[in-house]
Amino acid sequence: MTENYTALYDQHKKAGASFTDFGGWQMPLKYSSELAEHHAVRNAAGLFDLSHMGEVWVTGPDAAAFLDYALAGKLSAVAVGKAKYSLICDADGGIIDDLITYRRPAAQDGTDVFLVVPNAGNAAVVAKELLERSANFDVTVKDASAKTSLIAVQGPNSEEILLKLVPAEQHALVRELKYYAAVEVDINGQDLLLARTGYTGEDGFEIYVPNEDAAGLWEALLEVGAGHGLIPAGLAARDSLRLEAGMPLYGNELSRHVNAYTAGLGPVVSLAKESDFVGKEALADIKAAGVGSTIGQKLVGLKGTGRRAARAHYPVLKDGSLVGEVTSGQPSPTLGYPVAMAYVDVEFAEAGTVLDIDLRGKPERFEVVNLPFYKRQK
Amino acid sequence: MSKVVSELKYSAEHEWVAVDGSGPAGIGISAVAADALGDIVYVDLPEVGSTVTAGETCGEVESTKSVSDLYAPVTGEVIEINDGVVSDPALINSDPYGAGWLFKVAVAEEGPLMSAEEYAAANGGEL
Asked: Closest residue of B to A307, CA-based?
């Protein structure tokens, strides 16, 4: 696989990052200490390069109807300026990717405009699927991933940091921007798409910026954020933050081999929408059979009672019998105890159930808890 | 680049050994290994009085991102463990050759060990 480099690679290198491959991209794993980066996001702010994520624009008179067909959610119901978390499923109901879709203001000729944001490793697959599914719709599907960078500022100080790069007359736009909404704002002298979204469990923003302007924006944010505790944060911190927030990671919790009901994402699927959509029939059958509630497995949160952490693929046991498998796990930096997510047989998925996880031959007690592990104080 | 201390000997599994000829040998993990592991949050050490065997696992070191077995670089009886590093494993990151030492062994026999120069050359460390 050829390695991709984001437009911010030199910034990361200069900052002393160690790199890791993620979805075919060389991404910063950490700059100095992943724990310090994690705590910075919980207590102040962290700066993330998310340019490996995809950006696919869907425009045209049928854009809303097309997305209702292509994705599991009802995207036509999303208001202009708002965003929605959704899934793109295959015909069997397996999850091809989880994604965020933004509805932007309609073009001057009145046609609808949506921005679909898939995960790094799935961007090309999603763009291809969308193109194939668009055959009978009057839409244009354009993959802008290679030209677009994405920078996130996450943490309680995010808003005040961002406002330093926004002219005073637009401050209200930023302050009043709701979670899962986006707006065009002048940031660092350039009109950019700003979204109040994130993957950390904290307040925060994601900024879409053309590749050629990404380095300038990154440096500017670091400069104005320095007095507010902002530091660059790598994928290691991103992973521990999203795990504490109970958010699934494609490749760990989500894949083509699981469906929305097993993954606890039933509410994301709109079986009620009038239109057909890819995977609808299969998902209706899966739901009717009770998968994820009365039969099969379910994604749960597990809290460790000792100090040793569970890791992906470790077996979950009840009285010595295999009842599940860990998908993500590590010591929680914020909470101070090991946390994990796992697929377990539904009869053991109730909060309060005590299970064992086989930690390299030694079983350790874990308790099923409701997700998320961590929720910020508002 | 991660530091390699010239007075110590090293195993292929990234443990360092302080052999002074007479007393017990201090053992820890190299800065190369500590940096690769990331922030260490848990360490499981052999018990005082137990015997460790060169080349065999005798504990584990766990960071936020991963877990690694600890290999004994020498054979002999464990005569002391560093309680400080058990309660504050971050010492392994901040001072791997000092306050982050792990345990001491009355050496019966050394396993295959490298000089600092050999270890640094093989693992990209800095003397």
From this structure: B42
Write A346-355 long-range contacts (CB < 8 A, 24+).
A346/A292, A346/A293, A346/A294, A346/A295, A346/A296, A346/A297, A346/A298, A348/A318, A348/A323, A348/A324, A349/A297, A349/A298, A349/A300, A355/A302, A355/A316, A355/A317, A355/A318, A355/A323, A355/A324
**B65/A331 Cβ within 8 A:** no
**A360:B60 CB<8 A:** yes
| Tokens matching residue A33 | 């200490």
B91-99 contacts: CB < 8 A, separation 24 or more? B92/B28, B92/B29, B92/B34, B92/B40, B92/B43, B92/B61, B93/A33, B93/B34, B93/B35, B93/B39, B93/B40, B96/B16, B96/B28, B96/B29, B96/B30, B96/B31, B96/B33, B96/B34, B97/B3, B97/B5, B97/B8, B97/B16, B97/B28, B97/B31
Nearest to A311 among B41, B42, B67 (CB): B67
pLDDT one-digit tens code per residue, A212-231:
999 999 999 999 999 999 99
A240 touches B: beta carbon within 8 Å = yes
What tokens were used for B78? 């464990």
Which pLDDT value is given to residue B126? 87
DSSP state, A94? B
pLDDT in tens, B104-115: 999 999 999 999
